[in-house]
Amino acid sequence: MKNLLTDIVGVAVGHADDPTVASGVTAILFERPAVASIDVRGGGPGTREEALLSPHNVVEAIDAIALSGGSAHGLDAAGGVQAWLAERGRGFRIRDAVIPIVPGAICFDLLNGGNKAWGRFPPYRDLGYAAANAASDDFELGSVGAGMGATTANLKGGLGSASALTDDGVTVAALAVVNAVGSVTVGSGPWFWAAPFEVGREFGGRGLPPSFTADMLKARLKGGADASAAENTTLVVVVTDAQLTKPQARRLAMIAQTGMARAIYPVHAPLDGDVVFAAATGAKPIDPLFGLTRLGALAANTVARAIARGVHSATALPFVGALPSWRDRFG
């Protein structure tokens, strides 16, 4: 396994970004439509097709997910992914009509130093198409795709991924775009809140501090008193090869949100737009109660790891006043 979302057979991931704009798009493509749902916990989300993903609505499966920077402008990215799929005849069929189903979510990166004077139309539709066209079973982590312009309270954010295998052979994987109002590290040190769940040295192997001080436990917020709900979001996609119904996918997304709380402090705030998509490719049956519970617990751990890996892999933006990366600060 590569410790990536693409450890799920039939899933491909592609990035497209613009260093001048300091923003980008990540496309997650499913070879066959995947049963999917969503859980939204942040107070300032920006999503596309959220209602479609509700368990009581008709369409059960999706063709792709688009994650983007650009705040509300970035919702155009899903249209680019949709266009790429439509050219290939992939989508939900109603007689002769083919409609690619592409939910999406965005994060705010408009004040990170990049040039956002893009003219009449923002670049995200084209970036979405390019991200879909670049999709493969291997992809980069860090300051790429939708994670290019991401930041946290005190360090450069980024895009991370991780995967895991249950005892009965079911795979679960996560991809996270970390643009949180909170911090993923303890105090001003190198320790990740997600350290108890680290596998090997996938995000530096620093563990937790030997003891906690009151200062370490203070909430550190991006922007301080000027923080805005529009400026922060962590976007997560969880995919499994288990067979799930749409309500079960919703429950998986809900349990997986726990991983954000294990990796970011604080999280699910009025100042965040935190979203988890959960999708299932359906290759392996599981017990509908205990199997789903075990899968959800492992998914939450995997989300925490993906978040930490995103920040650990990030590189600082080349602009005056840009936040340092974890590697810049801690080596």
UniProtKB/TrEMBL annotation:
UniProt GO molecular function: aminopeptidase activity
InterPro entries: ArgJ-like_dom_sf, Peptidase_S58_DmpA
Gene3D superfamilies: L-amino peptidase D-ALA esterase/amidase
Organism superkingdom: Bacteria
Alphabetical list of Pfam families matching this protein: Peptidase_S58
Entry's family note: Belongs to the peptidase S58 family.
UniProt-recorded name of the protein: Peptidase T4
